[in-house]
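EI: anyone free to look at a 151-residue chain?
SC: sure, send it
EI:
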Amino acid sequence: MLFRLDFGRDSLPGARDDGLPATGQNCDNCPVNVERTKQGHNQLLKELNEERLAALRRISGVLEALIEQLQGQCDRIATLDGADRERELEAYRETRAQALKYRWYLDVQREAIGLRPNRIVDEFYAIPTLDEVGKRSPVLGPQSSVQDRRP
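SC: here you go
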């Protein structure tokens, strides 16, 4: 004698023809849980925005420190001669490259939270440049266009 075991949907206790579990059973896709899903989604969006804002703060803090360091280096370069000046120029170039990278990070992070490019931000985070004689220039200048901000 052969026995046939049927483990299909109809053989499960509490199964219904419409594919939903019987009344009283947990249902993750039921309309009752839509509100819980919306709340979870909104909480996730809030946490993501808080993290984006925290990243923006960290990036702007590092960028401000780099700009201050560049301004000090520009002042020192103007007073130095010879090998000391060359060492300070090399340090200036490295710091400036890092500042341009962080300026690009700032632009990317601002765009990630929906802020558009802004002239005031460009003025506030202007990366100091040196002209040919080593004097400081407060404007971005031709060496640090928007394309230069990308690492």
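EI: Residues 34-149 form one domain.
SC: 👍
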